[in-house]
Amino acid sequence: MNRTPSTESAPQSVSRFLLPHERRVITVRRHPAVLIRPAATTIGGLMVAVLITQASQGDQALAAIVWLLWLILLFRLMMAFTNWTSEYFVSTDQRLLLVSGLFSRNTESLALARVNDMSLRRSPSGNLLGYGTLVFESTDLDAVIEYAPYPEQLYLEISNLLFPDRTEQPDD
Fold first, then answer.
1. Which of 7, 44, 45, 52 is least enclosed, having the fewest CB within 10 Å?
2. Rounded distance, CA 68 to CA 60, Å?
3. Which structural domain, as residue segments, surrounds residue 106?
4. For the whole model, what pTM was predicted?
């Protein structure tokens, strides 16, 4: 499925980090697969809690501890979901930004002019579920975006920004 990432659905919290002369090209959340591990541990914890409660045969203290531990897993899942909904990867015509945080916003940016190379990595699970890891290399640091949705399309769009087509002939 060839789907272009949205540029119109960015929240105001992302737009306020853009410079007046910047044009937003891509705005996406991480792939929902980032929630698989916390969801699986929460479901697994629920099954264990039910089994222990049934096996404890009326031991209220043990049951209370088990369900309290499961509530911690549920809270962890809710926090992972909340973080996922508030984190955006943004590519403008001049910078790459990662905006995150619900209560205090954190913004990491890398100027496109500083990026020397870019690569795309896809694990077997990434191929199956449709996500990848984008690695941006510069002389002094590497930026990694894990769980990038539509990885091939993102790779092509950002590559086009990094390495524009130079085949256009100047006017004589």
1. 44
2. 12
3. 22-31+87-162
4. 0.79
Question: 66 with 20: CB under 8 angstroms?
Answer: no
Query: What secondary structure letter does DSSP report for 57?
Result: T
Long-range CB pairs of 110-118 (<8 Å, 24+ gap) are 110/136, 110/138, 110/141, 110/143, 112/161, 112/162, 114/138, 114/139, 114/140, 115/162, 118/155, 118/158, 118/159, 118/162
Instruction: Let me know if residue 151 belongs to a domain.
Output: yes
Cα–Cα distances in angstroms (integers) from residue 13 to residues 10, 32, 78, 163, in the given order: 8, 20, 21, 29
Considering the domain boundaries, does residue 76 fall inside one?
A: yes
Q: Is residue 101 part of a domain?
A: yes
Calculate the CA 129 to chain-centre distance.
14
Say whether both 27 and 108 belong to one domain.
Answer: yes
Specify the pLDDT at position 57.
81
Q: Indicate whether 126 belongs to any domain.
A: yes
Q: 24 and 158 in contact (C-beta within 8 Å)?
A: no
**Number of domains the chain is built from:** 2
